[in-house]
Amino acid sequence: MSVTPGTQSSEQIQIGVTLLERFLECTPQYFQAGPDGKLHHDPRKVNVFAHGRKIFADSYGGELTMDDPSEFAMVKHRLLTQPTFLQVTLKKEKKSGNTRYITRGNFVIFLNNTHPFIQQQLREKLDQCEQLLSADKNFALEIDLGPALKAWYKTRFAHISGSYSADGSNFCITNFSQKCHECYNPILWIGCLPFMLLFGPPYCIYRAAKVNDLDCPVRANVTYLEGVSAAERHQLAVMLAQAYVQGLNAGTAVQSTPNLPPPYTDNPPPPAYGQI
């Protein structure tokens, strides 16, 4: 994953955010476009979690289940040493009267597992899972990038109120099953009270007795990545400048303003306010 000028090096990045369109224009070396129009990868080299799989044909989805200690050891090693990618939709909602305004962006998220600060958080929770598995106990580890991503997305809308969500920003490592989040959502309890009273308490009691649920809300700095390396941008600018000069020398009609590439910054394109 490449970075823009003036940003941190790829080794220093903790969480990188790239617009989906930019990511597809310059995919990292881990991915190959397939005849199905989706991206394929070697799971021995990169981890991919994408709810519904979407553009990643071979992703783990949102849940990775295993019950063999040797298989868990392999997954643990990959999660601590290999880059991890997620496809996430960040959304801001603001209601005014009877109208709801939604601004959303589709992003590919890069989690730098080898960064010491990130690795320390993951290793602590994965070690707990390994101990539970060795003791023949059920576990479900929820790794969630949502809080960090929502905090970053909120900074794009300074002084504008609204609610924020990060769909697809979590994934689960388990030897049992992923937790049904709906049963723990107080908003759903209010909106679906009869149904939740019937099914919610029994599920929560059963879950507490059967599974050790571990939460890992990843704390990290978030960096916006343009998706194209500085070297590639420089090479493109040089090529365009050379073509412009050659056109002048040859007496070729050219535009008064050379067709230079657009400026690249650390910030994504401004959101489309009021998009419904």
The number of distinct structural domains comes to 2
If you average the pLDDT, what whole number results? 81
Give the C-alpha Rg. 22 Å
Q: Low-confidence stretches at least 5 residues in length (pLDDT < 50)? A: 1-7, 252-267, 269-276
- Overall helicity: 25-40%
Tell me about the largest β-sheet.
Answer: 6 strands, mixed
Spell out the helices and strands N to C: EHEEEEHEEHEHEEHHEEH
Region (Disordered): 256-276
Biased composition (Pro residues): 259-276
Question: What does this protein structure show overall?
Answer:
The model is unreliable at 1-7, 252-267 and 269-276 (pLDDT under 50). This protein has seven helices and twelve strands. The longest helix has 20 residues, at 230-249. With 276 residues, it is of the alpha/beta class. The strands form three sheets. Strands 1, 4, 6, 7, 9 and 12 form a six-stranded mixed β-sheet that branches. Strands 5-10-8-11 form a four-stranded mixed β-sheet, sandwiched between helices. The two termini are 32 Å apart. It has two domains: 15-176 and 212-232, no CATH class; 179-210, no CATH class. Helix 2 (69-81) packs antiparallel against helix 3 (116-134).
Offer a quick outline of the entry.
By secondary structure, this protein is α/β, with parallel strands linked by helices.
